[in-house]
Design a protein that fits this description.
Blueprint (H helix, E strand, L loop, with lengths): L1 H5 L18 H7 L5 E2 L6 E2 L95 E2 L13 E2 L9 H9 L1 H6 L1 H11 L14 H10 L13 H4 L3 H14 L7 E7 L5 E6 L2 H21 L14 H14 L4 E6 L9 H8 L6 H11 L3 E3 L2 E3 L12 H24 L4 E6 L2 E6 L2 H17 L10 E4 L4 H9 L7 E3 L2 E7 L5 E7 L1 H17 L5 H19 L5 H20 L9 H10 L40
Parallel strand pairs: 5-8
Antiparallel strand pairs: 1-2, 3-4, 5-6, 7-11, 7-12, 8-9, 10-11, 13-14, 14-15
Helix pairs in contact: 5-9, 6-9, 11-13, 13-14, 16-18
């Protein structure tokens, strides 16, 4: 910096004097376009193409390469004698391979003299003409080529000068790479979990920074119901960066405390209601961020293939496809249809903490997860303490439920099958509903007894009315009549479908899936209430809403063999809509001709099949080490993709 201070008493040419046509040096240059002139200090010949006249001189605070002087055009006046930036070396437009020296910082000694350089006094660095086309190692430091860079092996990489006593590479690492590092933290967590199956993660909460919280905020539903504070997605985003920064600080200080969830009830198919807990938007953000950090650990190294509930890239139809392949292509003669009573409301918090600590050794993350379990429930104006269970409705609840059932049910079933079963045993689980297939009846009965004892150990209980062992499979039709005295085999419901033993046209065994009666009645009652409530609105608006509901119904229940049930559902919706429209007037009664004319004007979408046969589906997620994961489509080779 001594050179810069020594040049401060020299004359600085203003901007106007540097333009062609004005007095001074710029004018003399402009009068001899195409001609070269000699530098007053060095005596070298300077060509006009290298002078770059017409820009502001480089200020002293940008002379080290960290400011506006990084632009090659901003140092045009550096070659002019008497300018403040005359001591600054210039960045070349091209470099010779191997022509850069080692990284030097302020205070290093000057470079060795090159051939042709003018003598200079000690402690001073004479500027080199731009026509030399060579970089100066004192100004453009170099560093070793990175293995991930795209620079050729013969070419070095530009480094940066040190700042505040840090190395040049450390400066670049702290300013250029954090966004990339944070963007892939969840991926790196999953890669480590896949590589080290039994590894424990002890530093997860440190990755919960503002970028991750912002991504979690973007993943939330914008139209979701608000919690007890009434904060919506759009209102929270008005000052998003400031709020997320403050939230990050509270999380790492330990001052983050979740608010109670708002309790609402939704109707179930059996006439009862299901309680849901709606967290506040801030709690949703933190829960979503925690789920993004924890989910790769269990997806890559813990969860088994027959678990489908609330997992990425797995849907209810994937579980239904695996179940159909199990019933069609495996040795299944008996089925255990099981359901856990009030599973989400009876999860033991002590066991939950122990299960989480199997893979998460970060005490701060474990305490954060347990805070959500003890946050309490706000129902009306009353606050209720929670001693067990996890509220349904939060982003973290499905993951914690899967963790609980993984250790209570999935791992235990795997061990029981290898140790106690006499024949084939298969299982498909979606959340707390699961179906097991057995080759022998004694295995099915033994499993039911052992399962009840196993669940009781962890505070759970089988639903007595929904758990049963029934004969089901390709020989069920024959054996039900001969051994059980039934006209046809029993049926069972799973994920909204009733599974029925049937035969195709060629007499082959086929599992027919029909819309479950309880689901069908509940959906019709809901649509009937909506049409009655909106019957005074414009017919076009009512028609649009009904079409959307029917298309959504076909999208889920449109499986092969269910066309008759969907067509019947459409007929009920049509009749209920016509009846609601006629009730708008006491004298409005439609004739058959009027009904037909109305149907031509507002035709409801016809029933259609939207899903493939299970044998036509490619299910790579159901293959692997467990029994159900080995299910393949008919004709496939073991181990083939």
């Amino acid at each position: 910096m001594s050179e810069l201070s020594s040049s401060s008493n020299k004359q600085v040419l203003p901007r106007e004097e540097l333009r062609p046509g004005k007095s001074g040096l710029a004018s003399s240059v402009g009068d001899h376009r195409g001609e070269a002139w000699a530098d007053e200090r060095t005596g070298r010949v300077i060509e006009p193409r290298n002078a770059r006249i017409g820009w502001e001189p480089t200020s002293s605070n940008t002379a080290e390469g960290h400011g506006a002087a990084d632009n090659p055009r901003s140092d045009a006046a550096a070659l002019l004698p008497g300018s403040e930036s005359s001591a600054r070396f210039h960045m070349p437009s091209a470099r010779e391979p191997g022509g850069l020296g080692r990284c030097l910082v302020d205070g290093d000694i000057g470079r060795q003299a090159r051939e042709g350089d003018e003598p200079q006094s000690a402690g001073a660095r004479a500027p080199q003409p731009h026509a030399s086309e060579e970089s100066d190692a004192l100004v453009v430091p170099t560093c070793k080529k990175s293995a991930n860079s795209r620079v050729t092996p013969e070419e070095s990489m530009e480094g940066r000068s040190a700042a505040n006593g840090k190395s040049a590479w450390g400066n670049a690492e702290g300013t250029q790479r954090p966004q990339v590092r944070r963007a892939h933290i969840t991926k790196r967590v999953g890669e480590r979990a896949k590589r080290e199956k039994d590894a424990k993660f002890n530093n997860l909460l440190s990755h919960m920074k503002t970028p991750l919280l912002k991504e979690a905020y973007q993943r939330l539903r914008k139209d979701a119901a608000a919690g007890v504070d009434g904060e919506s997605w759009s209102s929270y985003g008005e000052q998003l960066d400031a709020r997320l920064q403050e939230l990050e600080e509270r999380i790492h200080r330990g001052n983050y405390h979740p608010q109670p969830v708002r309790r609402v009830h939704i109707p179930k198919g059996d006439g009862r209601t299901r309680p849901l807990g709606i967290p506040t938007l801030e709690d949703k953000i933190v829960q979503q961020a925690a789920r993004m950090l924890l989910e790769p650990i269990y997806e890559q190294s813990a969860f088994l293939g027959f678990s489908y509930g609330f997992r990425p890239c797995r849907s209810p139809h994937a579980a239904l496809g695996a179940l159909s392949l199990m019933l069609h292509c495996r040795k299944v003669n008996w089925v255990l249809d099981a359901d856990i009573r009030s599973f989400f409301d009876t999860i033991d918090h002590g066991w939950m903490q122990k299960f989480i600590e199997h893979r998460v050794a970060d005490g701060r993350m474990v305490r954060l997860l347990m805070k959500w379990l003890h946050a309490g429930v706000m129902e009306g104006n009353e606050l209720h303490d929670v001693q067990e269970g996890t509220p349904q409705g939060g982003s973290i609840s499905p993951l914690m439920a899967n963790i609980y059932l993984h250790y209570v049910l999935d791992v235990w079933v795997q061990a029981w099958r290898k140790k106690h079963a006499h024949g084939a045993v298969y299982i498909v689980r979606y959340a707390d509903d699961f179906v097991m297939g057995f080759q022998h009846e004694q295995d099915a009965l033994a499993m039911r007894a052992a399962l009840a004892e196993r669940l009781a150990k962890f505070g759970l209980e089988l639903h007595a009315d929904k758990t049963r062992v029934l004969r089901f499979g390709r020989f069920a039709g024959r054996d039900s009549t001969r051994l059980d005295g039934r006209k046809r085999p029993e049926t069972f419901d799973f994920l909204g479908f009733t599974h029925i033993c049937a035969s195709g046209r060629a007499g082959r065994f086929w599992v027919v899936r029909r819309t479950a009666g309880k689901k069908r009645k509940m959906k019709l009652a809901k649509l009937r209430e909506e049409t009655r409530r909106h019957r005074h609105k414009p017919v076009v608006e009512q028609y649009r809403r009904l079409c959307e509901s029917l298309r959504g119904h076909y999208g889920y229940y449109g499986v092969p063999g269910n066309h008759r049930a969907m067509n019947s559902f459409r007929g009920h919706v049509r009749r209920d809509w016509h009846a609601a429209l006629q009730r708008r007037s006491q004298r409005a009664r439609w004739s058959a001709k009027q009904r037909a004319q109305f149907d031509r004007l507002f035709p409801l979408p016809p029933a259609r099949i939207t899903r493939l046969f299970p044998s036509q589906l490619f299910l790579p997620l159901t293959r692997g080490g467990s029994p159900v994961r080995e299910i393949r489509s008919p004709g496939s080779v073991r181990g083939a993709a």
